[in-house]
Structure prediction request, 245 residues.
Amino acid sequence: MIESLLTLFSDPAAWLALVTLTIMEVVLGIDNLLFISVVSNKLPKEHRSLARRVGIAGALILRLVLLGAIVWIIKLTDPLFEIFGQAFSWRDLILIAGGLFLVWKATSEIHQTVDPEPGPDRLNPKVVATSITAVIAQILVLDMVFSIDSIITAVGMTPHIPIMVIAILITVTVMFIAADPLANFIQANPTIVMLALAFLLLIGTVLIADGFGVHIPRGYIYAAMAFSALVEGLNMVARRTRQRE
Prediction:
C-alpha cells in the first residue's frame, strides 16, 4: 500500500492532479459552506458553531462514504428515462431536487427578511425560531447533494482514489477553518445576509439547470458572485466613511 502511494506520488502528473482537484473541490465547497453559514446563524449563538461543525463533519463523512461506493456513484450518471428527448439520471434528479430546495429556502428567507411584519421564523439575530436538529437536518440534506456533485467531479478529473481522499480532506479542513469567520461576518453585516441569500438562489438555479442538462460554467457563476461581493464591499466601506464624518 505504502509502496503504491510512493509510486503514485513520484509522478508529477499525480501532484498536478491533486492541486487541480483540491482547488476545484474548495471552490465547490464554497456553495456548501455558504448554506451552512446562513442557516446556522438562525440558531442561538451558543449552538451555531456546533451546528456548523456537525454539518461539515457530515459533508466529510458523506464524501468518504461515497468514495467507498464509487462504482455505484459512477452509475448515477446512467440515464434512467427520457422526456421529450432529454435523458435524466439519478444524478440529474438529485441535483434538481437539491436545487429546488435551495431556491425554496432562499426565496422563503428573502420573503421573511423583506416582509414588514415577518413571522417568527426569520433571519434576525434577535429572533430564534429554529431548533438545532432542524438546522442540522437541512445542512445534511444539502451535504448529500453537494457531496454527490463533488465526487462525480473528482471521478471525472482523476482515477486515483488516494488523490481524491487527500483533496477532500484538504477541502473539509479549509471549510472547518473558514466556517466561523464567514458565518460571523455574514451575521455582523445585515446587507451581506441578503447577498448570501441571493447567492444561494443563484446556486439553486444552477443546480436545476445542470440537472436538466444545461451546463453553466461555474467560472461565470463565481465571477458574478465575486463581482457582487466586491460591489457590496465598496458599499460597506462607503457607509463606514459616511458614519465617521
User: Anything to note?
Assistant: The chain has one domain: 14-244. Residues 14-244 form one domain.
